[in-house]
Amino acid sequence: MASNTISITPLTRNIGAEIGNIDLTKPLSAEVENQLKNAIAQYQVIFFHDQKISHEQHMAVGQIFGDLIIHPGAKGIEGYDKIVAIHADKDSKYIAGDNWHSDLSCNAQPPMGSMLYIHTLPEVGGDTLFSSMYAAYDALSPAMQQYLEGLQAEHDANHVYHAIYGDYGTAYPCNVHPVVRTHPVTGKKAIFVNASYTTRILGVSKNESDGILAMLYELTKDPNFQVRFSWQPHSIAIWDNRCTQHFAVWDYFPDTRSGYRVTIGGDTPY
Fold this sequence. Notes:
Belongs to the TfdA dioxygenase family. This protein is of the alpha+beta class and 270 residues long.
């Protein structure tokens, strides 16, 4: 059994912390599991280094935060339908996540979070950026906050996954969620629209919808709300999709970057 006290090193004032004094290849005590849950609630995304985990260990750690779900678009790896390969190399025409997004916000119950393990990296590049949607919401004027809280938006996966995976006879998830959601654990409010999945705001004109979404997407890009994670071989990131967005930087072509991800089930936004 590993130590019962993890170390936490905050990386910015708004988002992100590095977790130390922990070995994710070994069973974790209930106390450590609670520390990890508290850490992700406080810092929104947490990072680990030097964790050479197996598929079983990957799933076990992910399950600390909730039940794992099957991705509606990407197929799981052989023998593990809840583990998705994240891989790019010289033959890649695209990569997963090279746009600001919250994973699977198109689902009726969008994921609580995701856990990504990267084992192979290019010599330079391949960072991931995370942006705090708490900070984005807090940056808005009270009048704009109040206005947005009365709105709902459509999140549609079809244009995303038909382009990537094909299967034009398949209907991918499309659901409506509040533009501002209340986090079920912290009670904080966060912007909940993203450039990958959100197609329109309901109940307003197209011009108004496009204008509001463009403003909110610009907030996501503000570096004051972000943390940038530089991966090392066998690093792990676990993030809360309910209050963050992320962007995988593809600045390493034609080199290889490879790992695995699990998706942690969530709840209906309110």
